[in-house]
Amino acid sequence: MDQNWDDLRLFLAVAREQSLSAAGKLLRLDPATLGRRMARLEKTLQTVLFVKSPQGYALTEAGSDLMQRATKAEQAMRAATAGVPVQSDRLSGQIRVGAPDGAANYLLPQVCAAIAAQNPDLDVQIIALPRVFNLSRREADMAIGVSAPTAGRLVVQKVTDYKLHLAAAEGYLSAHPQIASVADLQQHRMVGYIPDMIFDRELDYLADLGVNRVALASNSVSVQVRMIQQGGGIGIAHDFSLPATPGVRRILTEEVSLTRAFYLIRHADDRRNARLSAFADALAVGLRAETARLEALAAGQTAPKA
Q: Measured between alpha carbons, how far apart are the two ends of the chain, in Å?
């Protein structure tokens, strides 16, 4: 790769953090200076690497391609510094990923299958549990979380935002009173989390809507979605779950639209592990692309290329 390594180092930080300010803190570099460096890199390569928005910097297809190549260069640099030979580009061995069951059911299977297809000697294990994982006890090599932990020796990277909306089965909607506003929800059965088993405050969706009773509840996202699909009632569903749930559609999308985020969480001691870092980068890129693809399908739009 003939690009200046320092430019690539800065690029990787912005790509992983999806924010000039967050990357700037890690690099101890002024965000404005970092922004100019990224603009210069795009000009040099004559391609757009990021989609810039108030929410941050998201990689374009060209940016994702450069990230993969830059990650390989980073691995080579680390190996050379450590005095060990550069390993094959392919990943091998076992990697265990912990995730809440929404991500584990609707996103990770296809993302991890794609990574495994490119790395035949790699074994990927997905632990789907509706709770926070303890990486210090090595329950997993890395975890997906819905909030950024503030305690412990951890490295936290925001992966992507995702959207949630109220949803109901077509059959339920046709058999029950019309829903024209949030106030109308009081006349309907609600599906959601078991209140005392909500493991992260980011998941307490219904309380903000003034819903006091959850008629059908589960600590599992996939069970909630199935309850909605079976006509059990109305609930908050991840947009990325709806393409896999025929007969269910979003409602009151203008009045109720929630945005949450997935974070990739790793133990600080693993930062210099080239194998885990390469997998983490591939996982983050895949999760961003698959979330965008499925959300576009849910919204009835043309899905971007995977």
A: 25
